[in-house]
Amino acid sequence: MKINQDALGEAGGVGRVTQFEYEREARSPTVKYLRAIADVGVDLTYVLFARRLETSSLKPEELAAIDKQALKMLVRNEFELGKDMDDESRHKMFEILRSQLIAKKFQANSTTSYQDPFHNR
Question: What is the CATH number of the domain that holds 16?
């Protein structure tokens, strides 16, 4: 995806300085920002985990199990927070949880070591 820093910040509802701070990891993005950039086509799995995921190598039953687990996590989080999310927020949060679970599945199955880009900085 080709999008410049200003356009990405605008899509995410943040200014140039905030966008720059996100990119240099001086500041963490909000869920609202992540939802907004996902809406313009940004791959959140890549943003969050520095990995592009190819789910075609997973069996349908593996994807179904991941979806079920993501849904359980979503419901538990809503219950613990004591408030309901609107449908759009719920959908985006489900996508984030699902991507995280898929990344963990690939990490567990990987024969190479995975370098977490956000660990030990």
Answer: 1.10.260.40
Specify the pTM.
0.49
Q: Is 107 found in the same domain as 61? A: yes
The phi, psi pair for 35, rounded to 5°, reads -60, -45
Range of the domain at 62: 51-111
* pLDDT tens, residue by residue, 58-110: 787 888 888 889 888 888 888 887 777 787 788 788 888 888 888 888 777 66
Q: How far is CA 57 from CA 49, 63, 94, 105, 112, in A?
A: 19, 10, 21, 11, 17
Shared-domain flag, residues 55 and 105: yes
Instruction: Please give the helix or strand (H or E) that residue 3 lies within, else none.
Output: none
Most distant pair of Cα atoms in the chain: their distance? 44
In a domain, 17, yes or no: yes
**How far is CA 21 from each of CA 3, 26, 55, 72, 73, rounded to the nearest angstrom?**
17, 5, 31, 33, 30
Asked if residue 11 lies in contact with residue 40, where contact means CB atoms within 8 angstroms, the answer is yes
